[in-house]
Amino acid sequence: MNDLFAAAWPDHVARGFATVLSRSLGWVGAYVGERLIGFVNVAWDGGAHAFLLDTTVHPDHQRRGIGTALVRQAVAAAREAGAEWIHVDYEPRLDDFYEGCGFRPSAAGLIRLTRPGA
User: Fold this and answer.
1) Cβ neighbourhood burial of 37 (10 Å; 0-12, 13-18, 19+)
2) Is domain 2-100 in CATH 3.40.630.30, yes or no?
3) What confidence tens digit (pLDDT) does each residue in 90-102 have?
4) Quick one: how many helices (H) and strands (E) in the chain?
5) Which of 1, 50, 56, 105 could serve as 44's disulfide partner, Cβ 3.0–4.6 Å?
6) DSSP assigned state of 99
């Protein structure tokens, strides 16, 4: 996953993912052969709310519908698990993408808990 994230997110710092994934409802990956080229994590609160995190498609494979397919599969998995709502936070430049996946904009609050580069 670090290879994918490094290609897609310029500030990515290599890390382990086992702890995060062990707490997830599930995740969806897209592959070319054995190479991971797309990923989305579905976190949840154990009840009504699920959350999309880390939606990522390798830059060489973007704008081909891979991200949309990943999100749709993640939404379906959350629905099957009994979640009533699925949330996603994103930057305004991704409005069209997430609206195309069926999300409606909503107000949300955010507090940054760490300093960049800390």
Assistant:
1) buried
2) yes
3) 989 999 999 999 9
4) 4, 4
5) 50
6) H
Residue 57 in tokens? 């498609």
């709502």: which residue's tokens?
Answer: 85
Q: Quick: pLDDT tens for 48-76.
A: 999 999 999 999 999 999 999 999 999 99
Cβ burial, residue 47 (10 Å; 0-12/13-18/19+): exposed
Edge-first strand listing for the sheet containing 49-57: 26-32, 35-44, 49-57, 85-88
Domain boundaries, the chain: 2-100
Tell me the torsion sign for CA atoms 90, 7, 16, 81: positive
Strand partners, 27: 41
